[in-house]
Amino acid sequence: MTEQHPNAHARAASGRYSSGVQHVNEPHHDHFTVVGNHLAQHPELSLTAIGLATHIQSLPAGTTIGIKTLAAKFQGAAAGE
Predict the structure, then answer these.
(1) Cα dist. 12→19, 20, 21, 69 in Å?
(2) Of 34, 78, 40, nearest to 57 (Cα)?
(3) DSSP assignment, residue 73?
(4) 49 — phi, psi (to 5°)?
(5) What is the CB neighbour count within 10 angstroms for residue 54?
(6) What pLDDT, on the 0 to 100 scale, is given for residue 13?
(7) In Å, how far are 11, 31, 35, 41, 69 from 63, measured between CA atoms?
(8) What is the pTM of this model?
(9) Biggest distance spanned by C-alpha atoms of the chain
(10) So what's the pLDDT on residue 16?
């Protein structure tokens, strides 16, 4: 039998939607990057490619970026560490 989680809600809180994705919109004033749905939901890119593109977009303007820089930054990530 599956493990029970007493802090999980038995059903969705009352509102317009009762299932599926529910968004909580909070304004961000510092340290955020806007990623368009055309990238986040691109039908031909892998999850890895989307994550990598999002990371690159989040870097400050003028940041030097390349394969070696990315490989050093994410060392071990490909191995599942």
Answers:
(1) 7, 10, 11, 44
(2) 34
(3) H
(4) -65, -40
(5) 13
(6) 56
(7) 46, 16, 18, 25, 11
(8) 0.61
(9) 53
(10) 65
**Residues near 54 by Cβ (< 8 Å), separated by ≥ 6?**
33, 35, 39, 40
Nearest to 40 by CA among 25, 27, 51, 55: 51
Q: Are 30 and 40 in contact (CB under 8 A)?
A: no
Q: Please answer whether residues 18 and 11 qualify as being in contact, where contact means their C-beta atoms are separated by less than 8 angstroms.
A: yes
Answer positive or negative: Cα dihedral of 9, 15, 19, 21.
Answer: negative
For 30-73, write each residue's pLDDT tens digit. Answer: 888 889 999 999 999 999 999 999 999 999 999 999 999 999 98
Measured CA to CA in angstroms, residue 51 lies from 4, 13, 19, 46, 76 at distances of 32, 31, 26, 9, 16
Q: What is the DSSP string of 25-72?
A: -----SS-----HHHHT-TTS-HHHHHHHHHHHHSPTT----HHHHHH
